[in-house]
Design a protein that fits this description.
Layout (H helix, E strand, L loop, with lengths): L1 H8 E2 L2 E2 L1 H29 L3 H5 L13 H10 L1 H32 L5 H13 L6 H10 L7 H8 L6 H14 L2 H9 L4 H12 L1 H17 L2 H7 L13 H18 L5 H42 L6
Antiparallel strand pairs: 1-2
Helix pairs in contact: 2-15, 4-15, 5-8, 5-9, 5-12, 6-9, 12-15, 14-15
Length: 316
């Protein structure tokens, strides 16, 4: 009986077939939970209106069409908003990585005065909901004539107050704590100063940390719609006459379509068909906005996984 249990379940360092089967079932189940919405969104975006109205068509469309993507790109004004979308995510993310790396390095390597107080304030900025600071931030940006410009996103990142900057400071601090101080001491013996040590030793060793922080920061800024609309579009959040992003255009389209449908008398077949077609266009638009993030992740996947492994807060 014991030998049968060992053959099925395995032993330390040697997994049995039953143990492997349970692991694979769990992984496949979790993968299905995450992949199902993505697959459903992609398939729906390729369907024509007759396939969308046909309840028997679920995963394999009778006719594959790219018209939904053409309509989605037109609605989101991709040609006009692509660069502003990238800029609203790229520049704050780069500024956030630089500032958080400097802050994390200083807290990890130097015994600065009031270090515990600084750490407490950093954690307080993470605990405090960003909506609490929404009104004072807006008033401050308005006083400095920054509303409607990307400076409302870049300047907070430059001063360590970007989106979830506290997390990135802790990641860099933990990473630099794990870096041997003997490297710094050897560089000082060779005559290197603090800045030279940071740029020549710390930064090359912290590439995985930079990748993971940049990726998270870029995704969070890319997906943000509320604060981006508030700071870029002035007094009217629905006004996209200044700067706009693809997600804001999609959000406005969805709101306008709902108002259009509700204004029609009754819910007839034509309105139902129009509503279903709108779902296909929304799915196509969502795929279009998610695709750059997926491409960025696949490019940085190797360093991203390495960064997750090395920057985990383990208490060491």
């Amino acid at each position: 009986m014991y030998s049968l249990k060992v053959k099925l379940w395995g032993r330390a360092g040697d997994r049995g077939p039953l143990f492997n089967a349970i692991i694979y079932i769990l992984l496949i189940s979790l993968g299905f939970v995450y992949l199902y919405p993505i697959l459903d969104m992609f398939v729906t975006s390729l369907m024509t209106l007759p396939d969308l109205l046909d309840a028997s068509v679920k995963w394999i469309p009778n006719t594959v069409t790219m018209d939904n993507y053409k309509e989605a790109m037109s609605i989101m004004n991709v040609k006009g908003t692509l660069w502003s979308t990238i800029s609203a995510a790229l520049f704050p993310a780069l500024a956030q990585c630089v500032v958080c790396a400097l802050t994390g390095y200083g807290l990890a390597r130097y015994n600065v005065p009031f270090k515990k107080l600084i750490m407490a304030l950093i954690l307080a900025t993470f605990i405090l909901p960003p909506y609490v600071l929404m009104v004072p931030n807006y008033v401050m940006f308005s006083d400095y004539k920054l509303i409607g410009t990307l400076k409302t996103l870049i300047y907070p990142a430059l001063f360590g107050q970007g989106t979830k900057s506290a997390i990135f400071i802790l990641i860099f601090m933990q990473f630099f704590r794990q870096t041997p101080k003997a490297l710094d001491e050897a560089a000082r013996v060779d005559g290197a100063g603090d800045l030279k040590i940071f740029f020549r030793i710390a930064i090359p060793l912290a590439v995985p940390a930079f990748v993971i922080c940049f990726l998270f920061s870029f995704v969070w800024y890319w997906n943000d719609t509320y604060f981006t609309a508030l700071y870029l579009n002035g007094n009217n959040i629905a006004d996209t006459s200044h700067l706009s992003t693809m997600l804001l255009e999609l959000q406005n389209f969805d709101a306008m379509f709902k108002a259009h449908v509700q204004s029609n008398a009754g819910w007839g077949a034509s309105v139902m068909g129009e509503s279903v077609a709108n779902e296909a266009i929304k799915m196509a638009a969502t795929v279009t906005t998610v695709l750059p993030l997926l491409i960025l992740y696949f490019i940085l996947q190797k360093n991203f996984v390495r960064g997750i492994d090395r920057t985990g807060i383990t208490g060491e």
